[in-house]
Structure formats: structure tokens, C-alpha cells
Amino acid sequence: MPTYEETYAQHADRYDQLVGHEDHEGHVGALLDRLLSPRPARVVELGCGTGRVTRLLAARSERVCAYDGSAHMIERAKLVSAYANVEFGIADNAALPEQEGAADAVVAGWSVAHVTGFFPEAWREHAARALGEMSRVARPGARLILFETMGTCTDVAGPPNERLRELYAMLEREHGFSCEVLDTSYAFDSAADAARVMGFFFGEAMAARVLARNNGIVPEWTAAFTRTR
Which residue, among 170, 108, 116, 167, has the nearest Cα to 133 in the 3D structure? Predict the structure, then answer.
């Protein structure tokens, strides 16, 4: 199992295969339909990865400026996100090449929480910088949206570890976000297929848990944190 950093730098195709199976009932898109109404003129996306959320945003806005810190992920996103209204760029979540108040909505999908693992001793500062950038590039009245995990292959939604629990509390108590939990479960042809694809990203222990369920539907829970600028 590669590290997250190695996956994002070298294995965009395998990552894209994984996330292509997630949210098979389309609950993220349904939430965006509700939150991004009326249709925004310009959306800025942080941590776009291979473009899974980018594709949803492109269908619901006039223009999307999508950023990621990995050139490797961006190249994959360009291949699979063939939308004329999307512009991709390489940028860190804490340093977006955007003017103040440029966006009608700012979205970060499964990206900001990585600071809890990448910077275990200073994750609060790094999270605050990313949140500050989201607020800076949003115009007054714009919608800010973060998607983060609430558990994989579990029947009960909740933060998978203590650092995420603290981050989610920080989002709500210190930064004014509200939280809604979505069922974004994976759908595969079989449990064996699910274990193979998910084991690459989540590791052997997760693959074993998936196999033990003996079901191609693997529960995944997502927290949608939202607030208005």
C-alpha cells in the first residue's frame, strides 16, 4: 500500500478507479444541486485530485477553476474531465492564485483534512491557512463547502480518528460551518473486486474487512461542511 503522498504523486489512475465507484447513488451531486442554486458564475475548487467533484461542479456552474498540489493528479483530471468551462492549475490549498472575492462558491473535496496526517504536530495551523484561503477568495454571500470522510466500511458514521474529530469540531465551533452527513457508499461488481480496488488505497486490513462483508456495496460516509461567506 503506497502512502497518500505516493498515491497522489504516482498513482492517479488507481486513485481515479477507486473514487469512480464512490457515491453510487449520487448524493453529493444532489447536495450540490441544492447548495449551488442559483447557478454560480465562478467556482473555485481546492484539492481537485482527478476531478471527481470537478465534474459535478462543471455541470452546475458557468466556470470552474480547479486546483491541486499534484501535477500528476491534474494531468489525470484533464484526461477525464473534458469540460470546456473548467480551468485546472497547480496550487497548494494555502496559497491559491486567485484574487480576493473572486468566487461565487469555494469547494474542497476530501482535501483539507489531509493536514492532520501530513502535519501531525501543526495541523491546526495548516487547516486554518486553507480555511483562510477559502474565505479570502470567496465573495460576500458565497457558499463554502468542504467534503470529508466520516468512515469507510462501517455501519455507523463518525470521524475515523481523534485528529479528525478535533478538526471537525474546529470547523463547526471556530469557523461557523454546519455539518450534514451523506451516504456516499461504494458500489462494485463483487466483494472481491471491492477488496482489490480499495485495498490499494486503504491497505490490507481494509481489504480484509471488505471481503468479510461479502458484499459489493461498501458503506462510506461523508460529512458535508457548509457555511456562507
Answer: 108
pLDDT recorded at residue 6: 85
CB contact set of 37 (below 8 Å; sequence gap of 6+):
none
In a domain, 23, yes or no: yes
Q: What is the pLDDT of residue 5?
A: 86
Q: pLDDT tens-digit profile of 180-210?
A: 999 999 999 999 999 999 999 999 999 999 9
How many structural domains compose the chain? 1
In a domain, 25, yes or no: yes
User: How far, CA to CA in Å, does 125 sit from each of 69, 116, 128?
Assistant: 18, 10, 5
Segments in the chain below pLDDT 50: none
Strand duo 64-68 + 43-46: pairing: parallel
DSSP string spanning 17-85? HHHTTS-TT-HHHHHHHHHS-SPPS-EEEES-TTSHHHHHHHTTSS-EEEEES-HHHHHHHHHH---TT
Encoded amino acid at 214, one letter: N
The CATH number assigned to the domain holding 125 equals 3.40.50.150
pLDDT value, residue 4: 86
Neighbouring residues of 193: CB distance < 8 A, sequence distance ≥ 6? 216
Note down the domain range covering 48.
4-185+220-228
Cell of 176: 461557523
Residue 53 maps to a domain: yes
The three cell numbers of residue 68 are 491541486
